[in-house]
Each structure stands twice: as C-alpha cells, then as structure tokens.
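Researcher: Let's do a round of design. I'm pasting the structure tokens now; please hold your answer until I've finished.
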C-alpha cells in the first residue's frame, strides 16, 4: 500500500474531524494499527487542528460564560426541572346546551352536494358528447 498517497488523500483529516463513514473509520483505525506512520500522522493532524482552534477560536461574552458555568454547577435535578414547562390548566366552560345539528345546516349541505353532483354530471355529459 502506498502510504504517502493515503496520507495525502484527505481520509485522515476526515477521520479526525469525524466526517468519515463508519466503514472508512474502521479502515483508518485498522491501517493505523498496522502502520505507525499513519498513527503519527493522525496525532499530528489532531495537534494541528487543536492549534488552529486555539488561534482562531472566538471566546464567548463573559455573561454567557457565567450563565453556562452556573448551569453546569447546578445539580442535574434542578436543570431538568428548569427545562420541563409547567402545564397550564385550562378551564373548560360548558354552555349548558347540548350539541344539536340544525336542519338549516343540513339543508345547505345537501344543496351544495347536489350542485357539485350536477356540475360533475354536466362535465361528464359534455365530455361524452364530444367523443361521439
């Protein structure tokens, strides 16, 4: 195997960044066990990425850091309780009247259905007469 070509392929960088597939990661780990040069190269890439992050990293504002530290120092139960929204109790009021279907609504619904059926039949009849 040509180790120089494998090193320059970019696969090791993908592996270190966690962007390699599971199959590719297993291959890199297997090859690193077989070839100490690859293991050393992976270590070098990790160090270079750490240095890059230190040089170009952005520090959060102090109030964000303080809030995060406070949250990390709090017991886990307090954090879980803070995340769970409290259920609001909604009062359901009854009008006292039972639900009744009004006949006027039923007549209107029947009229709409009949109109739709008539239009559909007209379209079908027109289409049928054109075919003759």
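Researcher: That's everything. Go ahead.
Model: Designed sequence:
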């Amino acid at each position: 195997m040509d180790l120089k070509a494998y090193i320059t392929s970019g696969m090791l960088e993908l592996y270190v960044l966690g962007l390699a597939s599971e199959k590719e990661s297993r291959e890199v780990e297997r090859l690193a066990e077989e070839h100490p040069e690859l293991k050393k190269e992976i270590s070098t890439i990790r160090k270079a990425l750490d240095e890059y992050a230190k040089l170009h990293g952005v520090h959060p504002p102090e109030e964000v850091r303080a809030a995060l530290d406070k949250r990390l120092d709090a017991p886990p139960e307090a954090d879980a309780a803070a995340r769970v929204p409290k259920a609001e109790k909604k009062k359901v009021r009854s009008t006292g009247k039972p639900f009744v279907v009004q006949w006027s609504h039923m007549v209107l619904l029947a009229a709409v259905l009949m109109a739709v059926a008539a239009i559909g039949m007209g379209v079908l009849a027109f289409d049928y007469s054109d075919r003759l």
